Amino acid sequence: MLATSELFDGASPADFEPLAQSARIKHYNRGDLIWVTGDKADQMFLVLTGEVVASRLGPDGEEYVVDLFAAGDVMGSFHFFEPLPLRFLDARAADVTSCWVIQRQDFMHLLERNPKLMMLMLRAYSRWIVRRDLQDADSSFRNVAAQVATRLLHLADQFGEPSTDGVLIRLHVTETTLANMIGASRENVSRAIAKLQRAGDVRRERGLFVLPHPGALRARHSWVTGEEARAVSSKKRTGRP
Question: How many C-beta neighbours within 10 Å does residue 43 have?
């Protein structure tokens, strides 16, 4: 799965065979902490099943959600290139989750032997930085409804799957998680979602969000064009939305 992840898009399964002996699979129950702020960043994780939330607690105990990960995503490698790599976020399982865990030392040795993987990582990191900048700009100076709409659009760009009547976001994103992603109260986010549902912009199916007309929603609420969204999308370049 590493070869099919966004971080190593363009690699082959054979590139990762040296990791097969040392990597291990770990399992987590919902709510389990995978790492906490201040831990050594000495492991990289490939999510095999489940979902993970990366967040930071504020001084008053409020949570700010920084990122979400689903099956096929690689997480935990950002700090590998620092002299003293430490975690600055908490990561917890949002569902029953399993991960393939690779030790930093083994992974760095692999990069030394196969510099092509480093170039693939640099390309992915560049895309992630641009994507984060676009998301931050898209949320600036907006009311809560527009912030919720644009955040759902960004999640659809990253985790969306075509459905018979729109794009299904394949993550169980709760209203609390959305609120913690945009820095709003859950009550205000609930009202914003209700408003979007009444307008036919959003639906809920089995706890998942569906965007029936993401193009129209983007035109009304987002400053990011469809072309920009596709340029930084995590989707493989296969024509999928």
Answer: 24
